[in-house]
Amino acid sequence: MNQTFHDDLEFLERHTPIVVLQRDEAAVAIAPDYQGRVMTSTFDQDQGPSFGWINRKVIQAGLLSDPQRKGKLEEHIYIFGGEERFWLGPEGGQFALFFKPGTKFEFSDWTTPPAIDTEPFELIAKSNHSAEFKRDCELTNYSGTTFSMGIERTIRLLDEEAIADALQSQSVPSDVQVVAYESDNRLTNRGDQAWKPETGLPSIWLLGMYNPSPQTTVVIPFKSGPEETLGPKVNDTYFGKVPPEYLTVEQDVLFFKGDGTRRGKIGITPERSKGIAGSYDADGKVLTIVTYNVQAAPQGFVNSMWEHQAEPYQGDVINSYNDGSPAPGEPPLGPFYELETSSPAAALAPGETMRHVQRTLHIHGPENALDPIALRLFGVSLSEIKAGQTNRK
Fold this sequence. Notes:
The protein has helices at residues 5-15, 56-61, 66-69, 160-166, 227-230, 367-378, 382-387; strands spanning 19-23, 26-31, 37-42, 85-89, 122-126, 130-140, 146-157, 177-189, 203-210, 216-221, 247-249, 253-257, 264-268, 276-281, 286-292, 318-322, 337-342, 353-364. It is mainly beta.
């Protein structure tokens, strides 16, 4: 059974400083020590559900010493959970930030940089509705290029006007409950050399970890058209091909299980993207919507595949991950499911800044109130999302 927001907030506050943003009954809990991560949110602070997946075991244990980490997952990553974390790409390839120079593209050599894993962001401003963080750091990629970075991250609870705008509506329906927030993320070149494609470019990468359920389906609409110009409809080979019972791909929309029972990941090209992804939890009657600021990408999007890449800047802009056992007999990491978005590759001159803005909305209510929203934003009805296929002939 999923925890309430109240339960999760009490737990989090026992183990790490938490900044709470509030607007009416809606609230968001943010952890500065986990890189200004949105840990969870709710539309009802007292009794409402907690939308972020929280890894209580790892949070409770805290940061381990080097001898304690040896041979454990924490040697590679601290999976604290949280429904929106700030990361930097690319993960794999010759310009990877998660593999040191000279290592192999294998899990034993994969390491999350401390700047986006264990080191805190500084809280520099806070109000009831927003919190602002910053962090300067240096990261070296697989090819040996060092980036001097300035990171700024502001999280805001959206007001009713901004929520209506996100829903492409004149107003918010009176019979739904909503929590909606925006993260405004900025990456600045603090060095004295321009960042160039031939030596590697970083990107802003936002990942949301949510509580799975047997009746949760990820839905991503995309542009239809020929693969020659738009690329494949979906990249479904990150962790081996996703079987058809977990993924249905139609002309302009896909359905992907978010049940946390089988490990798999999918990606959408920037040419296909409509700037939106989401999910529907039919049990909880919660529609989740994630959008980002679609912008020009003259250098493309970084490729995070774990291999030496022929096309390092033909990566995906939207990803979704369903957790499950990584190998026979091994437990899942969570389980959880993820929705992710990325900025373009950041070919920044000294002092130049790239901005990536993501909005997350969780909307709860009767299906007759949620259905028009799904149709408007995703182009499919709730019944089609639940069935994992459209009714088109």
